[in-house]
Amino acid sequence: MSQELRSALRGSGVGIIIGLGFGIATLNTIGFSRMTLFEELLLVACSLFGGFLYGSLIGSTGAFARKSETGSEKVHKAVA
């Protein structure tokens, strides 16, 4: 498994947790009595999906990405 894929999956996991929190907070703000069960599930599912996409983007390019070593640094570590 490549390092970029691992970083994207790690970011997606964090994004799902944030999306779930955002979806539940939105439901609390709107109120459970005004929505049907299908609408509530749809809102939370959309929040989860958005968090997943955002987390994978940030994970693969930003906060959760690990810097890869260049070829010369790998050779230097192998020789030393």
Jot down its keywords.
80 residues; mainly alpha; 78% helix
List strands and helices in order, with pairings.
Elements lengths: L2 H28 L6 H25 L9 H9 L1
Helix pairs in contact: 1-2
3D structure, described in words:
The protein is an all-alpha fold and 80 residues long. Helices cover 78% and strands 0% of the residues. The protein has one domain. The mean pLDDT is 81. Helix 1 packs antiparallel against helix 2. The chain has three helices and no strands.
Derived from helix and strand composition plus strand pairing, the structural class reads: mainly alpha
Number of strands: 0
N-to-C SSE string, H for helix and E for strand: HHH
Q: Total domains, how many?
A: 1
Question: Would you summarize the structure shown here?
Answer:
With 80 residues, this protein is mostly helical. It has 3 helices and no strands.
